[in-house]
Amino acid sequence: MGGNIQIQNVMDQLNKWLIKLPQDIRLMSETEVTERPQPHKWSRKEILGHLCDSAINNLERFIKIQYEDQPYVLQKYNQEKWVDLQDYQNTSIEEIVLLWSSLNKRIVNVISKIPSDKLAYLCNIGNNQLVTLEWLIQDYLEHMEHHIQKQIL
Fold first, then answer.
1. Structural contact between residues 73 and 136, judged by C-beta atoms closer than 8 angstroms
2. pTM for the structure as a whole
3. Phi-psi domain of 92 (left: phi exceeds 0; alpha: psi -120 through 50; beta: other)
4. Fold of the 5-152 domain
5. What are the structural domain ranges in the chain?
6. Which of 71, 80, 101, 136 is 20 to 30 A (C-alpha) from 51?
7. Confidence band (pLDDT; 50, 70, 90) for 69?
8. Could you give the CA distance from residue 4 to residue 112 in angstroms, rounded to a whole number?
9. In contact, 43 and 89? CB cutoff 8 Å
10. What residues have CB less than 8 Å from 89, skipping those under 6 apart?
11. CA 16 – CA 66 distance, rounded (Å)
């Protein structure tokens, strides 16, 4: 366990966002978090909701990959439907931030305990593309940072 520089870096970044993102969102008005840039584009609330959905799905993956047969086949999920059916647009930003924070604290906890040998476990992300659990964890962070830096902050 531990000792993996890449995974330690992911945990450090996630912990940094767990402090920074709630602080920055608190400074935004209700209009800023609810307004959609275009009718068919997500609001900041919905983007953060999407990151909650990503956390829900990836938390499950990070756990299952460790004990299921390899290569673990990733189940895709319909991102638009998840955001729509969770109705983040009509949920308070406080509730969404709390959900996002709780889920990412769990993710940090789970990945901090993954034995190094399991980081090499394979998963099939579709089109017979195989990636390691370690790659998936790093991709999770990159996806999150993309949305936070480009669309939320």
1. no
2. 0.95
3. beta
4. Four Helix Bundle (Hemerythrin (Met), subunit A) (1.20.120)
5. 5-152
6. 71
7. very high
8. 10
9. yes
10. 34, 43, 45, 46
11. 26
Do residues 99 and 52 touch, judged by C-beta distance below 8 A? yes
Amino acid symbol at 10: V
Q: CA 8, 59, 41: angle at the middle one, nearest 5? A: 105
Residues 6+ apart with CB under 8 A from 30: 93
- Contact between 88 and 96 under an 8 Å Cβ cutoff? The reply is yes
Instruction: Give per-residue pLDDT as tens, 122-152.
Output: 999 998 899 999 999 999 999 999 999 999 9
**Amino acid at the residue 42:** W
User: Is it the case that residue 22 has pLDDT exceeding 70?
Assistant: yes
Rounded CA separation 83/44 (Å): 12
Q: DSSP characters for the chain?
A: ----HHHHHHHHHHHHHHHHHHHHHHTS-HHHHH--SSTTS--HHHHHHHHHHHHHHHHHHHHHTTTSPSSEEPPP--HHHHHHHHTGGGS-HHHHHHHHHHHHHHHHHHHHT--GGGGG-EEE-STT-EEEHHHHHHHHHHHHHHHIIIII-
